[in-house]
């Protein structure tokens, strides 16, 4: 008997869409990082976040967004801002009662993407140096 994916264990598309809707709304409306999203189509962002999350949770869903490094390259995202988004994610997952093993996977996956999003290590808020290029475009799954 095949084991179910984390996506299926979570409750599939309806549950993941509710989580993503809440998460994206919180991120976009956040006073600390929401300004990054002021010119972003919220519904499109929700759709891309759903695809990306479904994919890393094991769903047969293709992520059709641009590579993460490419999308984030034009934004001087600091480590503290990355951590703020991660905190909102953790709070949202807890709000929805996401099982611990799925939360751990999701958080670890998000943390593994840090080099594609920011050049700041850990949770520091250091302005990125122009001499420190980000990794080559990547981060696309699927």
What's the structural blueprint in terms of helices and strands?
Blueprint: H1 6-10, H2 12-29, H3 42-56, H4 68-72, H5 79-95, H6 100-112, H7 114-117
Helix pairs in contact: 2-3, 2-5, 5-6
Write a concise synopsis of the structure shown.
The chain is mainly α and 142 residues long. The protein is 54% helix and 0% strand. Helix 2 (12-29) packs across helix 5 and helix 5 (79-95) packs antiparallel against helix 6 (100-112).
Q: Main attributes?
A:
mainly alpha, disordered C terminus, 7 helices
Protein described:
- This protein has 142 residues and is an all-alpha fold.
- Helix content is 54%, strand content 0%.
- It has 7 helices and no strands.
- Helix 2 (12-29) crosses helix 5.
- The relative contact order is 0.17.
How helix-rich are the residues, as a percent range? 40-55%
Tell me the distance between the termini. Answer: 25 Å
Count of strand segments:
0
Look at the structure and give the mean pLDDT: 85
Overall morphology: globular
Strand content: under 5%
Order of helices and strands: HHHHHHH
Give unreliable regions as ranges.
124-142
Count of alpha and pi helical runs: 7
